[in-house]
Design brief:
Four copies of one chain form a homotetramer. Chain A contains eight helices and 13 strands. The first copy, chain A, is of the alpha/beta class. In chain A, helix 1 runs antiparallel to helix 2. Chain A starts with a strand and ends with a strand.
Chain lengths: 279, 279, 279, 279
């Protein structure tokens, strides 16, 4: 079977981009497996994700593409590989468990190199799956010290492609976020931007909403304000107390988070102006 | 066919309420057509909506029920009748048109006594349905003066059960709201409490959400913060500009608003602590 | 403003198609407004819809494209124009009314040249919108004779791009269907392929489903088995009798049908092996 | 804390049932925690589920209720207890894994006494959770013999309240079904009654549907035709091959099945005329 490459292009829009790119694919005898483009007319930005198959050196392909693309273009030619993923969680097991079951079934094209938590509660679950579990307690230390310990632990896990916050319930500082910029995926248990912050189900219950939801997003410096990757909702009614909303909401949370992780592992997400383009 | 009555009870919860109420129904030989109860344990409140059929004077039934209910109980015994509804709109026709088509088909158990707008744009549509149209322009007058004119117009339309804001795009003052307390139903073009205020589709687009929605709610003094009656959403993606979100969102708006109106006309909505209980 | 053209390509897949097509666009100085491709690997079929803007004679563009496409390619270069649409209905007004309100608001890029029905019941509604209404009664004549009358009436309405069956409740013969091949869009009031045939809401009620739906599809010779364009559903429960399912289902029907019509008017639908590819 | 009992009534409808039942609750000083009623007017059937709290001997309560209910009433007074559940699966782990993660988290009020499969593939997963795994291979034996082995294995597991077919991919004979009548919950990977039988995702792909779904239902003698408990769907498009439909469909399958199991464990499901009433 011939090798496949994912070509990711993100640049200023100009006439002829599809032609120039597909010209290289054609003359290099590459087969287009799938192809998606999008032009953000507001910002005059062009996004393209192609999966091509054929015999080529990816560095060569990259070089040839760069020659026809506008200056300052972002370009990646990726030979699919298992990405390294770290999961972080606190006490709840539903989102973490959903990822573990999928991982065990071979559904996720990645290597989970460890689970990091501020409690040891989830260790029995994680250890079933033969994945290293690291308890980095926040007790008896301030936020900065705790984060330094976290960062130290993470740095021991080697190169990390994505950190998935599978209901990690502590706020990360900008230092942490900058260290792993564009690599942290969080699940927020509300339909953002509604109910930012703590206890969104209680907030939702107090507000009397008829729908609750969950949002998977990249983490940036503003809590719950990073680029949204995926969202979904379920209907609720007056008979749902906030604990029942929380219980039913967990099903949405875990599905949405796993979906976002899968999109990231397949290099399907572009981020631009705090929004995502997803192919 | 025997007559039907809607019995609506809203009182402090205490043991025996279902027994006491159903005892009166039984001994008065009333048939229970449908029966719904809910106890809000947080506030110790009991809500009940029964539809009963039989031969009885509603005043008598009300008196007997009051004798067994806790003090300060809210009680209604309603012989279904066509309610008087006024529609208010500005420029967009989708929500207004949806109600008109349903009305024409006999789907709505009400009498639409008029449409009031600050523009004359929708008059051609409304006049097709032989419903009086009143243009009360806001031009050349301040908010208070405009509202006084609106209130004067409305008062000429006789007793009003519900005012439906079918995309009426001006903010109402508390004077107006208090005049028609608990009688004004609005459609907000977002999934509240996200994107309160103006241009929610633009806000949603800027935020990069993957779902947009609409919320029908009673209007109180705080813009977009009244009790929510119904909500729904649709999925969107990066390819949707805000105008496209707006266009697709209209379908959600009109369905949600018509649904809320129908619930109100059937006396299915209780309001308590800024939330709705809907049977 | 430069003119826009919709380029629709449907042909056997082979290497270089995107390159060859975009090359013509580029050298003809056409700007790609939007571009979508899909390869059906099972059938080795390539589908492409491009919207391009620029100064060109569409016949010339078509000729140039044909030269680079595989033999037997289907190719259209369409200068957007208002299509001619005929609506057909029987007794229910919700789907028809939804289209009329959208039409009145300018939302549908078409010309509704008439409404044809086997009853005169909907004439009062349609005449509000100044659209000709033709009653072609089926009483006192057999199916063939009735269809001959229908076909005679339709042929008087000039060239027809689409016939929309907005709850037209009689089965069409293959003669009728072949006369307007690929031009008839129907709304079936169930989630096809469940509940083919008559009274789907009764069937759904009897089966005890927890979801009901609607399906917009092109009509072919097998009742309810043509290519599906759009579907949607709503949740129901044991308390919904079939009439209530029918009432709530109407909201799904009308939204789904209007959505399908809009897709057709924008030339977004390809049909292949009884399936639709929708860009 | 006082003890709670679930009272389940299913009988012919007649006037005064709510009164008579609530009268006993009141005079026995029982507090109504929740109360739901439904009358199936087509079949003149009354269904009621009450949760009551107080000091009473459940046998006494049952006797008193029987005295006021119509003859042939079905009545249960249940002191909540952990039910015994057996899971059956074949090769796929998603539905099984979802139940195991919930079970581990204490979300399911039951005792999983074992997992039975016709393969040993899922043993490594199940054994992580310290639940007995029984491989009952179907190889080298005919259907009857295989089922006899299954039944023998199941009978060794003690009293079973529910058998959950978490993607058990073999058809059960009526002998098996009758042995565990009303106790077998299956997840079918389609939106029933569409795509009954084998390979529903392939069937759905061939038919070109725009929505796929899953159905949890009780099993009766007709394959996939038992009473439906829960259903849900997701949208798909032309770009989804059947394998992708299958992959995405698994998320719906597992959530719907776990939801159905939870409803059963909480005694919320009545079955009548091949339909479910769910409170």
């Amino acid at each position: 079977m011939t090798k496949q490459y994912r070509v990711l292009i993100d640049c200023n829009d100009e006439k002829g981009l599809v032609y120039k790119v597909s010209s290289i694919f054609f003359h290099r005898n590459l087969n287009i497996i799938s192809n998606n483009e999008f032009v953000d007319k507001t910002h005059n930005k062009f996004f393209m994700r192609s999966v091509v198959a054929g015999e080529i050196d990816p560095a060569t392909l990259k070089q040839e593409l760069l020659e026809v693309l506008p200056k300052n273009a972002n370009l990646d030619v990726i030979a699919p590989r298992k990405k390294n993923v770290v999961l972080m969680a606190t006490k709840e097991s539903h989102a973490l468990g959903d990822i573990l079951i999928r991982y065990e079934a071979g559904e996720l094209d990645c290597r989970i190199v460890g689970v990091v938590s501020n409690y040891d509660l989830l260790e029995p679950l994680v250890s079933k799956f033969n994945i290293p579990y690291y308890t980095v307690s926040h007790e008896g230390c301030d936020r900065d010290e705790h984060e330094n310990r976290l960062l130290a632990q993470l740095s021991e896990l080697g190169e990390i492609d994505y950190i998935v916050l599978a209901k990690y319930m502590r706020i990360l500082t900008s230092k942490f976020v900058q260290t792993y910029e564009d690599k942290i995926i969080n699940i927020h248990h509300s339909f953002l931007p509604a109910f930012i912050g703590a206890n969104p189900y209680k907030q939702a219950y107090e507000r009397g909403v008829k729908i609750i939801g969950a949002t998977a997003h990249f983490v940036n410096n503003n809590l719950d304000e990073g680029p949204i990757i995926a969202q979904d909702v379920i209907h609720v009614n007056h008979a749902h107390g906030w604990e029942e909303m929380q219980r039913q909401g967990r099903d949405v949370e875990k599905i949405v988070l796993s979906k976002a992780l899968k999109l990231a592992l397949e290099d399907r997400i572009f981020v631009h102006t705090n929004k995502t383009i997803i192919f």
